[in-house]
Design a protein that fits this description.
The chain has one domain (4-320): Cupredoxins -  blue copper proteins (Immunoglobulin-like), CATH 2.60.40.420. It contains 6 helices and 15 strands. It has helices at 4-9, 33-45, 94-100, 102-113, 117-123, 251-257, and strands spanning 49-53, 63-75, 81-87, 135-143, 148-155, 158-163, 180-189, 199-204, 208-211, 218-226, 240-245, 274-280, 288-295, 298-303, 315-320.
Amino acid sequence: MGPHFFSLRIRPILSLMLLPIIFYSLSACKKSKSQVHNAQMRLQNKDIIEVVTQNMDFQTVDTIPSGWHTFRYTNKSKEPHFFLLDKYPEDKTIKDAEKEVMPVFQKGMDLINEGKTAEGFATLNSLPTWFFKVVFSGGSAMVSPGEQSVTTLFMEPGYYVMECYVKMSNGIFHSTMGMTKELIVTQELSDGEPLVPNVRITISSTEGIEYDSPIHSGPQVFSVFFKDQISHENFVGHDVNLVRLHKNADLTILENWMNWADPEGLMSPAPKGVTFLGGVNDLPKGKTGYFSTTLEPGHYAFIAEVPNARSKKMFQPFTVQEPTQEAKNTPFPKK
């Protein structure tokens, strides 16, 4: 799809508001280890929507009922990827974007890549008004090659486009290489349910990323509540990515890489010393999504795809220890 990726992520430059959607929240009480285990078993036993990337593609179903669904995303390619689910306004499809949106973004991206950032963003003012009614409805956050993520979301009925806009090493977006897919969500309601988390994450533009309990090794179910959602300096909203930090990880390089507006931002390959393990992509204000994983002891971080994530408290390193030890969420050594 090429520049289509920006068309699906950028918040209204013309100050138009996104469509309101259903508010979902969970109770604040702590859940026992048995409840977390039951949540994991429910994931194993229920129908899971498999999403597989072999190269620049999404191999998955075409139609699902509305309601709660768990997506298991397996990245079998050699590139880092994510998928974002974008709900289109009625009567609009990818074909409309190809005609009315892609050429605008291609011109804008060409200017940005030439170092003419202000001119590139100014070009985006010629986007069609229907574009600003696209609702960014979650998905899997970044996943490294050979890794897998599990994300649970509530899907409203409608027409969606699944996309990835990580850049190739030559600056071409994965969406340009064809990494998009239509997904139809029908009026029929699934029997899925929200999960029982053992760690609750809240993200907001004012408080950044916060979580309510120590994080131990072993199976984990994280909920992510979007207290608000805004357009940041790079015109995208915030999300939560889980990253494992190895000994050679450079936090400054990672922070800069997570901003697409940086010349080398979101460009493959990902920074050395990091492994992306998924998370929850952009959701609107008031929505909750979940991601499930099994953590080994080591250094990790939650980070949002925004400029200056650390100053916004949206880059939170932490240490995972064995469940039998007292958790000490100590900072990863800064570089």
